[in-house]
Amino acid sequence: MKKIETGINDLYVIETDVFGDYRGWFTETYNKQKYKELGIDVEFVQDNHSMSLEIGTLRGLHFQNEPFAQTKLVRCTKGKIYDVAVDLRKGSSTYLKWFGIELTEDNHLQLFVPKGFAHGFVTLTEHAEVQYKVDNYYSKEHDRSIKFDDPKIGVEWGIENPILSEKDKNAPSLENSDVNFIYEVKE
């Protein structure tokens, strides 16, 4: 298992060890001890699973405000997605920087998204399934979103007319958001 730097503070791509033969393959998608050895010591409390029917379905940019912020460990278990995380922590040297990566059922990559980030993805195949772990429970009162195409952030999604939920169609701009994340320097 490898932790790969993304160029954004505390955001990592995780490459699991995949063992395959004529029967198929096997990989450990999560092992608390191995993650701890990589410097990722998070207590995940909930697993989520979504399925998007059509190519071009965009979910995001989502987050939960403090004190219910969530760390996420995201992977694509069927199909292919373009996964994006945006640093929303004021005071971070990578504030408002974003990172995008293709996660697929074949590459087995995962994106470790710490608290203080907005997260979203667009589907690149039909019937795409995404599974992710979180370290805090869902809180409707703290659930937030920001416009996927906010020009202040400038994510390049590679799609012109995404399929959006009503929540995402009506998401505020970053400027009109009440995001409350502050970067904490690690010692």
CATH superfamily: Jelly Rolls
Q: Which radius of gyration do the C-alpha atoms yield?
A: 16 Å
Unreliable residue stretches: none
SS-derived structural category: mainly beta
Provide mean pLDDT, rounded. 97
SSE arrangement, N to C: EEEEHEEEEEEEEEH
Shape: globular
Walk across the major sheet and give the strand order: 1-2-10-7-12-5
Number of H- or I-type helical stretches: 2
- In CATH terms, what is the fold-level topology? Jelly Rolls
The domain tally reads 1
What is the total tally of β strands?
13
Secondary structure: helix percent: under 10%
What is the CATH level 1 assignment?
Mainly Beta
Give your account of this protein's structure.
The protein has a single domain, classed as Sandwich (Jelly Rolls). Helices cover 5% and strands 40% of the residues. The strands form 3 sheets. It has a 6-stranded antiparallel β-sheet, with no helix packed on it. A 5-stranded antiparallel β-sheet has the order 9-8-11-6-13, with no helix packed on it. A two-stranded antiparallel sheet has the order 3-4. Strand 1 and strand 2 form a beta hairpin. The model has no long low-confidence stretch (mean pLDDT 97).
